[in-house]
Protein: Redox-sensing transcriptional repressor Rex
Organism: Streptomyces siderophoricus
Amino acid sequence: MATGRTHRPATRSRGIPEATVARLPLYLRALTALSERSVPTVSSEELAAAAGVNSAKLRKDFSYLGSYGTRGVGYDVEYLVYQISRELGLTQDWPVVIVGIGNLGAALANYGGFASRGFRVAALIDADPAMAGKPVAGIAVQHTDELEHIIESNGVSIGVIATPAGAAQQVCDRLVAAGVTSILNFAPTVLTVPDGVDVRKVDLSIELQILAFHEQRKAGEETPEGGAPATSGRAAAVAAAAEAAAAADRKGPDGDVPAVMPA
Amino acid sequence: MATGRTHRPATRSRGIPEATVARLPLYLRALTALSERSVPTVSSEELAAAAGVNSAKLRKDFSYLGSYGTRGVGYDVEYLVYQISRELGLTQDWPVVIVGIGNLGAALANYGGFASRGFRVAALIDADPAMAGKPVAGIAVQHTDELEHIIESNGVSIGVIATPAGAAQQVCDRLVAAGVTSILNFAPTVLTVPDGVDVRKVDLSIELQILAFHEQRKAGEETPEGGAPATSGRAAAVAAAAEAAAAADRKGPDGDVPAVMPA
DNA sequence: ATGTCTTTGTGAACGCGTGCACAAAGATGG
DNA sequence: CCATCTTTGTGCACGCGTTCACAAAGACAT
């Protein structure tokens, strides 16, 4: 997962463990898909399968929210969608600013999943004066000078940083000073923030390196002496995969696009 | 962090805990920055600060790799860079394919951090026939029909999925069947893969929802009765932040750009 | 050579998260 | 109203990851 929380040791927020909070959006997505298919109830077993988790874990997760299920029947889909949405704070609108409108920033701005989940792009901010006024995803880019003004007048509490690494900390400091208390960081840097501010980072490079580690391990496992790796292991994987691929008919839950509008 | 591993319970890969593996890229980045500044050695304390972790944790992490430090002195930067690179499998080149060249796919293709870390974009693949042949980031986009051929002839073992959610599982199945054993998934779907295949997901929507949860909690904490939240809490945060911002002079480690070339 | 001072490497304790397995709850049918 | 069957909610145990705290190792000065 390209995610990684930063500071803030635990989160007994109200007894809800951090690990559970991280899974709630997953459940919500699966439930939304069921809701769209007008499915009235689901068992923990079914929902767990859809979300790709253990059913016992799911039940325990829900138990932190309260007893919303009916024994012998399962969970009411609509009710659960509401409860989770409320718990995650998605019943209100969250204005978000994106700083750094490069390729990634623009891609994020175009992300359709924002509005559908209660997030609204309040502003796009870039340091390049040439970008100012240019429309991206239907919103005019504003210059960094306006940052504080934008944050304060819109009551923005969530900021997305998509700048180069060199500018990230500075942007972060300005966001925080202006009142932002949650930051999603796409820049490959460790951000330092005061207590009370949450930072989550998304780092492509780190994700790839973790995959490379496991990939190397797999290759080395079945090729004892050093030779051309990633070949002997491959044949076996392909065989196992062919069968799995053939059995894969289930279609994607919803028509959602990834973190960005694909062509 | 916007990351999340999927199956594969533990990873005693060779005794190296999964949590440690996930931090190695972080250390590597900090070390690379030190190396560029020609710093010969670092103490665990200094390096830990740069990587944003606890120094005891860092030492324990390194202890899994072997005893590469010198008591009373610290760690040799160059040597450590080499050891971590080797452990992560970055001494070899990893060809990568990106499937789904929409806004995000294109942004990823433009990501400069690929090559610098041992990853090479072997091909860009999209289902839209109109995209075929069109150059993105200097590479001609190829049609999905070529997928199996590309994977096999280039020996690709890592695939990046940036398609809409509806197409993700199908693309995943084809990648796996063709020999890919590591997948980085940007589509908002749970992917089902056979054993032996690693999946990591990056999900903007989930990250934002997690932030929203904490944001809501912060707002509710200091505003007992329901009213206009996220306002009283803000003032305190701003005050605390101003001081922190003023004390922030350290410049970004390297000139790396985020998951994409910014304008 | 010896003593001091710094910094590593790790034993041990603790806490969180996971998964098993089962009792309790409630629906459903007779 | 009772029996049966399904599915939830959770007590418990286990394992991983984190952190503390300190002994051992080595550099460095005298």
